[in-house]
Amino acid sequence: MSDNPVTLFSELGLAAPVLQAVEEAGYEAPSPIQAETIPPLLEGRDLLGQAQTGTGKTAAFALPLLSRIDLAQRRPQALVLTPTRELAIQVAEAIQAYARHLPGFHILPVYGGQGMGTQLRGLSRGVHLVVGTPGRVMDHLRRGTLVLDDLRTFVLDEADEMLRMGFIDDVEWILARAPQERQIALFSATMPKPIQQVARRHLHDPVEVKIASKTTTVETITQRYWQVSGVHKLDALTRILEVEPFDGMLIFVRTKTETVNLAEKLEARGFAAAALNGDMNQVQREQTVEKLKRGALDIVVGTDVVARGLDVERVSHVVNYDIPYDTEAYVHRIGRTGRAGRKGEAILFVAPRERRMLKTIERATRQPIAPMNLPSREAVTDKRVDRFKQLITETLESQELNFFEDLVDGYQEEHDVGLSEVAAALAYLVQRERPLEVKEQKAPVERESREAKRGGQKRPRFDREPDAGMQSYRIEVGREHGVQPKHVVGAIANEAGIDSRNIGRIQLYDTYSTVDLPEGLPIELQNHLKKVWVCGRRLNLTPTSEKGRKPKPRQGKTRP
Q: Which residue numbers does the motif Q motif cover (predicted)?
């Protein structure tokens, strides 16, 4: 560790276009891993970094990589290897954002599950930086479509996760095909012996950086998450807003465009909402914050820039509508509530493929995040009815209604109807645009189940709401094809975004295998996994039976 810690990004020696992008993103002070890592990487030194996911290490290697890129040379100068496709996409998106002021810069993520054609076209056009998973990078190297002759820097991200998923031999195979004279940066949360051996074999006199993790979230903040499934995110958010008692709220999304889109949709649903993002000038931003402070606005939809320096006492809730890319951003976001000893609420939306990031946040903050159920249709209806009754009471107390009483009396006499019928008709007219009663909507999975039955292929029904327990699936690859459990774990964890700890028992047979996965796996994810290749075979993943029953072996060899 440095005796004189860097306190500003401007002191790190980054290229001017890269520094401009960092400052526009709202970052001023580098995190510890960034302050310790960026200077030696800029010097071309090898580096061995030990830090938890979510400490800002993506920027720690991305910023020096971009500062050293030769834009005139359209061949891969840097390769970032990640254990999962989700992480590959996240890293590529983050690097692209930091490179916004580098004209002509091209980055390409390569991973299984995406059409090879897209990646081949990208590589043939020329790229400066490649981010990929081991299996797909190996495919391109074998084909000759990815050439590492001009590689300057090799980044191995989450090396211990590579080891746990059975990819470490693949990593060594790729490293052996990189030029001898190249810089290597290896990052790992832990340093088991196999990772230490890889470092000894391939890194030359590396700078070693170790960042201790610590709890950074506020204990006065109650944290909950909702597993995105079945119900559309906007509808889920609306339910929460209608039932959850809140004063002021910040909702975080990833892009400036989405701040405007979501704010407009919430306004259309009757909420006092506005966007706040980096495209607004300082005066506009200050006006929006001032409206939130005085109650003219209840909801502000913003990007991570909002999380820095914003302190509004009214903010009782923070909603992470889009999960952040790292835990540092998460901590900054939810830190806008629960300030000065006040109670705060933080709600996180988590898609199935993002559960790994949820676990990362919990580990880094050392605080569990409890699952939450969406408010039921009945609860939303009750709240709307309560507000409607309150509106009637306030109107009776504050308005002169003689004209309208005469109007109703006259209507009764003319049409010979009861007062309750007239009142019911008027109530219906008032709420017609925004009904008080929330009608039940069929989830897409139910429609798909019916369509499957009509097509003559009866399948078990799966609910989108995940429950405890596992479901058994059959995959069309077995011992005869050379498969091992680690291959199945690696493919499913990589392609489905399921943490390998949540992949259950794997039973190998001669011509097929079975694997237990969390119950409630979305249909689209099942369909995607059908197309995944393992040991030269498509998985063709299918549910074996109703929950808890063993699959019936098909024709052919079935020796366990």
A: 7-35
